[in-house]
Prior knowledge:
Elements: H1 2-15, E1 26-28, E2 33-35, H2 41-51, H3 58-67, E3 73-76, H4 81-89, H5 91-94, E4 97-100
Helix pairs in contact: 1-2
Amino acid sequence: xxxxxxxxxxxxxxxxxxxxxxxxxxxxxxxxxxxxxxxxxxxxxxxxxxxxxxxxxxxxxxxxxxxxxxxxxxxxxxxxxxxxxxxxxxxxxxxxxxxxxx
Length: 102
């Protein structure tokens, strides 16, 4: 993954000057923690660089979203893998997870 990581790192560094702070909370799957609106884009870039070679903290990320009050989830695409994972994480939230085919 080293070559891909180097290429991703360079690409992210190149776009950093044009990046804006998020307007909404964004959960990063490398930490399962939210970045609040107004977060520094440099922090986002560093977390995105780590994302390529770090474990995906999917379930802790979803649990953090649920804990913060998120009640609706949307899966975009032809499969329903995320919806199936949501059923294992929280049957209550599974009922409010919608698949949108694109």
